[in-house]
Give the backbone structure.
Amino acid sequence: MRPYSTRFIAREHAGLIEFANRGLDTAGLLVAALIVTYGLPSGASRPARDWILLVLLNLLCNLLIFQQSGLYRSWRGRPFSDQLGRLMLAGFGASLVTFVVWAALNLESEISSDMILIWLALGSMLICLQRAIFQLIVRHYRRRGVNTKHILIYGAGKLGQSIAEQARLSPETGYRVMAYLDDDPRLMGNTRGDIPVIGGLTSMDEWLTKNDIDEIWVALPLDAVQRVTKVLEIADAHMVSVRLFPDLNGLALLNHSVSEMLGLPIIDLNVNQMQGLNRFIKELEDKVLGITFFILALPMIGLISLAIKLSSEGPVIFRQRRNGWDGRPFTIYKFRTMFQHQEQNGQLTQAKKDDVRFTPIGRWLRQTSLDELPQLFNVIQGKMSLVGPRPHAVEHNNFFQQRISGYMRRHRVKPGITGWAQINDLRGEIVEIDDMSRRLKHDLYYIEHWSLMFDLRIIIATLLKIFSSKKAW
């Protein structure tokens, strides 16, 4: 008989974590209601029946919407930012339902608008704060070996090794890779890092019998996944979970996630997620923040325009055709940073760090990225987003799409004033094809992992790096 398995401890803790999250969410909403009830001048000295019913309604809506939003499943191995974004959207939905009920029942005389709005906002803040603290506590104990899952990786190639290395660098996730399996006889009996390669598929049954394994991670190229059937048969006999990590790195894919169609599971290899609700949220973000930033920047835009006009001949605004959403060309606006000149033979020469074509104020504008301010008008037009892959000149686009596989996939979203590549200092002159390839990887990562919180993170990072980037010229 096998010894007591850590697998059952992990399952027990998973249930405890889910129960704790439900309890914390409930407590956060109730504490917020108590604070508003007894802490605000508009709060009643004794809770009224309608107020109590409204609190219970909001509590029920939160628990139901959170459940449907997947907030009570395991978030092991995923960043808290993903959970936070979903918490905010689910909380907003529950709050909206509660506010509509409050307005429909005409409860203004008993429950003031400031009372209900402060309560809903405070409840959401407490839930997010409690979740963050609880996440930190769980991660702390996982680093110490509590709630650890023991992993067997089938595939000791580059993909398997990178997965094991990522698990090693993320002890807070609680994954511990115990060994590799691989059918290559040259690898059997060796180690990769400090992890042994114990044998091939024929060794799996014996090893699972003698060792406690919670999950098997299959890390194989697509042409070898037929072996998964045999892995599943062996794993089922030992009640071990199996996860597939297909090697998709060479395919330059977008949003390669598992979904369902016609009642059958499918892997999305190249699907644009910027549609439906996501598209609406992105458009709303651009309109609200774009107009706000444009109004705030008007004095700066006026001063810069005057300085450009007085310092050199030529127009204040530089216009250029670039490729936008779905590859459609549009006219981008920037402050002119160069003396007027003619390109030889209609060529388009990239700006260099010490380019003699820069005007004195133009060099400073490029270093601070303030030459991009007129693109706020592009955002208001709907041609650009605040955040997205940077648009390139049509000539450059034509050049790189012929040399880099998957290059045009960056046009699945609107181009942005700033982006994930830019805040990672991937900007400036492109000397080699690899320079653009690195930017493309960051652009595709952004498209695949887009969220409202990700955009806000990039915007804040951009504002902090305006005067510190070493690659802006």
Observations:
- The chain has 14 helices and twelve strands.
- Residues 149-247 form a domain with the Rossmann fold fold (CATH 3.40.50.720).
- The mean pLDDT is 81.
